[in-house]
Write a structure and sequence with these properties.
It is a single chain. By secondary structure, the chain is an alpha/beta fold. Helices cover 46% and strands 16% of the residues. The protein is built from 10 helices and 5 strands. It starts with 6 loop residues before the first helix and ends with a helix.
Length: 216
């Protein structure tokens, strides 16, 4: 299987970009819990180094939980990487729909990351977005990339940090709502999850707009 590569980022830096953001979301298809987004930011300093410890880094869905946690732990300690997490909870998902909620969380993550970095509007910047469409409401150049989490190193990094963060949230929810087994399926519609929903009904963190999926 081909690993995510750094070719695009290096090309962008060679073409005069000074700061590259990448953004990805997790939890889109879940019956419960928030949709979580991570935005990461890199300068060329990171890409000028060789990082053997990231050799097998890939889309979070293609990694074991152990490897995700290992990579996430290394990434968040990386001096040449900055990141921000944002989420939209079930009430917002039910109000807007899951796609719009995920896009809102993407915008929030990018805005938070840029605010944390201070005034850098003088730098040539771009956002690499996982998916078909760009994020509305941002005055910064964007590039949308289908299956970007499998192709682009920076987006894969964002996917890993977002996934580990969300899994931790769902493990904490499991302590509050132990009957649903959130620590096992993280809110996805497994057979066990649906069986528990049939027995206990939805809790506070279930998405009411996913009713057909819950009943089916």
């Amino acid at each position: 299987m081909r690993l995510p590569h750094k070719t695009l980022e290096r090309k962008l830096f060679a073409n005069g970009y000074s700061l590259i953001f990448a953004v990805d979301e997790v939890g889109m298809g879940c019956l419960a819990g928030p949709v979580v987004v991570c935005a990461v930011g890199f300068t060329n300093h990171f890409y000028n180094k060789i990082h053997k410890k990231y050799f097998k880094l890939r889309d979070s869905k293609l990694l074991s939980a152990r490897d995700r946690e290992k990579f996430a732990g290394e990434l968040v300690k990386e001096k040449d990487l900055v990141y921000a997490i944002a989420q939209c909870f079930p009430t917002t998902i039910d109000k807007l729909n899951i796609y719009q909620a995920s896009r809102l969380a993407m915008k929030r993550a990018i805005v938070a990351l840029r605010l944390a970095q201070g005034d850098q509007n003088y730098l040539k910047q771009i956002i690499l977005v996982d998916g078909k469409t760009k994020i509305n409401g941002l005055k910064i150049e964007q590039m949308s990339i289908v299956k970007g989490d499998r192709k682009i190193f920076a987006i894969a990094c964002a996917s890993i940090i977002a996934k580990v963060h969300r899994d931790g949230m769902m493990a904490r929810y499991a302590k509050k709502y132990p009957e649903y087994g959130f620590e096992k399926h993280k809110g996805y519609g497994t057979r066990f999850h649906k069986a528990q929903l049939a027995s206990f009904g939805p809790c506070e963190i279930h998405r009411r707009s996913f009713r057909l999926a819950i009943d089916g």
